[in-house]
Amino acid sequence: MKKSVLLFLAFLLLASSCRRGDNDPRLIVISFDGLRWSEVFGGADSAMLARPDYVKDRHAAEKYWRQTPAERREALLPFIWSYVPGHGYLVGNRWLGSRMDMANRMWFSYPGYNEMFCGFPDDERITSNKAEMNANTSVFEVANRDPRYAGRVAVYGSWTIIKYALNCERGAFPASTGYDKSVARHPSEAIRLVDEMLEGMPVVWPRDRYDAFTYAYAKETLRSDHPKVMYISFCETDAWPHEKRYDRYLDAARKTDTFIRNIVETCESDPFYRGKTTYILLTDHGRGSGDDFKDHGSGAAGSGELFFAAFGKGIPALGEVENTPDYKGMQVAATISEILGLDFVPDNGVKQDAIHPEQ
Ligand SMILES: [Zn+2]
C-alpha cells in the first residue's frame, strides 16, 4: 500500500518535471517568416495559382495542386503532416475554430519577433525593421543566463535583423544572420565549406541569405556543438512573396519542410538529443491575399494571423487541434520558458500563459 502510494507520487513528480522542463531539456525553435496559416492547413491556394502575374513556373500546379485540402497540405509540407500530428499539436486552423493572432498592430517582422520572444507587443517603440538592438529582454537571453543553458544557446537566421531583434550582444549568445559566417565553437570541415560558399554567392537580397545556408549552418552546429537551445529562422517564405512569386513561396515552404525533417532526423539519431528534445514551429506574421499577397502589415487583411506547432518531448500528441482559446503571439515566450523551466517575466511586467491546447 505504502509502496504504491510512493510509486504514484514518484510518477506525478516525473510527469510534472517533464512538463516544467527541469529534466535537462533541449529545445529547437524554427520559424518560417510570413507563411500563411491557410497554406499550412490547406496547401496551395487555387486563386493564387491561377494568377500569371504571381506564378512563372508552369509546373507549379502539377507540384502543389491536389483535389482536397488534406492532399494539398501533404504535397506542400509532407514532413510536417506525416510527423507532427503523431508527436505533438498544430494550432491556428481557423476553419476548425483554432485561432492565433499577433497582439501587436504592426504585422511585420521585427514587431512580430519581439512579441513572440520578448513576450509582449511594443508598438510604442518597435515601429520599423531597422538594424537596432532590441531594448526588450528575450527569453533566449534569460535562457543563456541560466547555468543549465549558459553557453549552450545558438541562433541562425537568414534575415540579418534577427540578431538585433533578439539582442544577441547583450544576451551574449552567438548568432549568425544575413551574411554572417558560422558561429560554431567547433567548426567542422563541412561548415567551413559553407562559409566559403556564402562568401561566393551573389547577394540577391542584401539583408537575407538563402535559407539553404541557414539550414546547413544549423545542422552542422547541432552536430559539432550540441547546443541545448537553438533558434533557426528561415526567411524565403517572406522574401519571394515580396517579389510577387507565389510559385517560389510554395517551393520555399516545401524546401523548409525538408530542412525541418533533416534537422529532426539529425537530432533524433544523436543520443544527446534523442527523446530529450522539444521542437516548436511558428511564423512571425501572416500576409494578405489576392493583390495583397505580396504584402503584410496593417494595410493587408489577414497579416496578423498565425499558426504554431509543438512536438517532441513533453508535448501531448493532439494532432490538429479544434476550437481552442484564441492564442496570441506573445504567449510563445511563456511556452518556451515553461519547456526550459525558466522563470521568464516580460519587461512590461505581465506574465502570459503558456500555450496548452490540451486544457
Ligand atoms: Zn516581409
Question: How would you characterize this protein structure?
Answer:
- It is a single chain.
- The chain has 359 residues and is an alpha/beta fold.
- It has one domain (25-340): Alkaline Phosphatase, subunit A, CATH 3.40.720.10.
- Helices cover 40% and strands 12% of the residues.
- The protein contains 15 helices and 10 strands.
- The chain has helices spanning 2-20, 37-42, 46-49, 60-64, 69-76, 78-87, 109-118, 139-145, 162-165, 168-171, 189-200, 211-225, 236-242, 246-268, 331-340, and strands spanning 26-32, 88-91, 100-101, 153-157, 175-177, 229-234, 277-282, 308-312, 319-320, 327-328.
- The strands form 2 sheets. It has an 8-stranded mixed beta sheet, with helices on both faces. A two-stranded parallel sheet has the order 3-10.
- Helix 5 (69-76) crosses helix 6 (78-87), helix 12 (211-225) packs parallel to helix 14 and helix 13 (236-242) packs antiparallel against helix 14 (246-268).
- The two termini are 31 Å apart.
- Zinc ion is lined by residues 34, 108-109, 238, 242, 296.
Gross morphology is globular
Give, in order, the helices and strands: HEHHHHHEEHHEHHEHHEHHEEEEH
From the 3D structure, determine the CATH topology: Alkaline Phosphatase, subunit A
How many discrete domains? 1
* Strand ordering within the main sheet: 5-4-6-1-7-8-2-9
Bound molecules: zinc ion
What's the CATH H-level homologous superfamily?
A: Alkaline Phosphatase, subunit A
Top-tier CATH class: Alpha Beta
Structural class: alpha/beta
How many separate helices?
15
Measured distance between first and last alpha carbons: 31 Å
CATH architecture type: 3-Layer(aba) Sandwich
